[in-house]
Amino acid sequence: MIDIHTHILPALDDGPPDMETSVGMGRIAAQEGIEAIISTSHSEEGMAVGYEGMRARLEAVRAAWAEVGLDIRLEIGLEIFLRPDTVDDLKSGRAWTLAGSQYVLVELPYQPWPTYAEQALFDLQVAGYVPILAHPERYTAIQADPNLMYSLVEKGVLGQVTAGALFGSHGETARRSAETLVRHGLAQFLSSDSHGITARKRPPALRQAVQVVEGWIGAEAARALVTSNPAHILAGTQLAPAHERVMPRKWSLGGLFGRS
Prior knowledge:
Layout: E1 2-6, H1 19-32, E2 36-39, H2 43-49, H3 51-67, E3 73-76, E4 79-81, H4 86-92, E5 103-107, H5 117-126, E6 130-134, H6 140-144, H7 147-154, E7 158-162, H8 172-183, E8 189-191, H9 207-217, H10 219-224, H11 228-235, H12 253-256
Parallel strand pairs: 1-2, 2-3, 4-5, 5-6, 6-7, 7-8
């Protein structure tokens, strides 16, 4: 499996506080069967350190993991807080893509939906990048109308659902949103968004989430979210997802009163 959204660099953002915890994350990932990880520290901290500084920190993690026998491919990335000038940051090298590919992981404020979002995403695409929207299940606008994500995927934007969201780590509304997105092909990646080794910090665990998703869309499609789809990022090749519009919910009188 390949995990494209993680915070594994110690003492940087809100990820692991020290190298010991980062090594612990690597051990969990290995036990889960994760063979490749992209480090996606938050852009504010990452851009302050700079690309070369971030690569040096990643090399330190690689060395620490190798020292304890962990054979996991580690690649550098960034979780970029999307702004109108994000494309300029990428072109200038102040920000960077996932594993040197054309794919870029971006996040937005959970609420409200920014007026600049669609234009900023379009600007990225015009410049040759493929935006991946991090944890779309958490955005209140998409929770209210999942077809907002459908319209983005129609335009070439991809989605990454967080594994923990499937188990209610961000509340029931986010859980239902995550399920809807996965069932309708509006999320192409399932990632841990890991920040540590405890349940609260979300360890790099994917296996149980894949098993849940298998019950919704079948084993092959579920495995693709953590294998063949993220492999396109590592290879720098194009991913053309199958997706469908979410039909309006047919409310019954029981539904109006919280029953279905």
